[in-house]
Amino acid sequence: MRRALVALLAALALPAHGAPVTGEDARAAIREATEAAGVSGVPVLSSNRGFPPCAGALDATPMAGDWRAVRLGCAGAWSRVIRLDGAPGAVRAATPGAAQPDTRALILARSLARGTILAPGDLVLGEVPAAGQGDLLRDPAEAVGRRLRSNLGAGQALLPRHLEHDWAVTAGAPVTIVARHGAASIEAAGIALENGQIGQEIRAENANSGEIVHVRVAGPNKVAVRPNIR
């Protein structure tokens, strides 16, 4: 009897738990947070995934201001990190007294969904941080008419990986290699060693010398040698 009474008192002392949180519950909480913040992004999360019970409300916040991952939490009881596909990265404030180099690049004029075919009005040329962006696109001709591979938020810099493949050069195909020095330019016949989209960096072989050079795709079957890099 004494043991039964102790067990009953212990059970009564435990806090009440809410219902188990489902993957759909988590998706809804994340969607509410992203819509309130005006950003896009699709949770990389199975609807069948389960989470611990939650007696309170779920909340979702960006990781260090970066919406590519959110922290899904339950009133301090537990938290999980969920990745968002197509969400914008962190907006970093300038460090006082430190120069922040920027560069011109194409950015999204509005939030667009995966599968959207880009139109001229979807893009603007603006200033973005020069560091850590990868292969930035600067020419609208490289993007207009191409289809997005993921959801993108307004103001996000456009990168080649955001677009469906549109090979201007294919591996094994002949290419014209252009090398520029000042106002002078030299052209040579070559063979592409990799597939490449306009603006993408690939390797090519000089057909005459057999030398392997690092080049940037400049147009259909045309590549330009990267300065000071072999």
TrEMBL record:
Its main location: periplasm. Gene3D superfamilies: 2.30.30.760, Antifreeze-like/N-acetylneuraminic acid synthase C-terminal domain. The keyword Signal applies. SMART domains: SAF (SM00858). Keywords: Bacterial flagellum biogenesis, Cell projection, Cilium, Flagellum, Periplasm, Signal. Residues 103-164 form the SAF domain. InterPro entries: Flagellar_FlgA, SAF, SAF_FlgA. The keyword Nucleus does not apply. It is found in: Periplasm. Residues 1-18 form the signal peptide. Belongs to the FlgA family. This is Flagella basal body P-ring formation protein FlgA. The lineage of its organism: Bacteria, Pseudomonadati, Pseudomonadota, Alphaproteobacteria, Rhodobacterales. The gene is flgA.
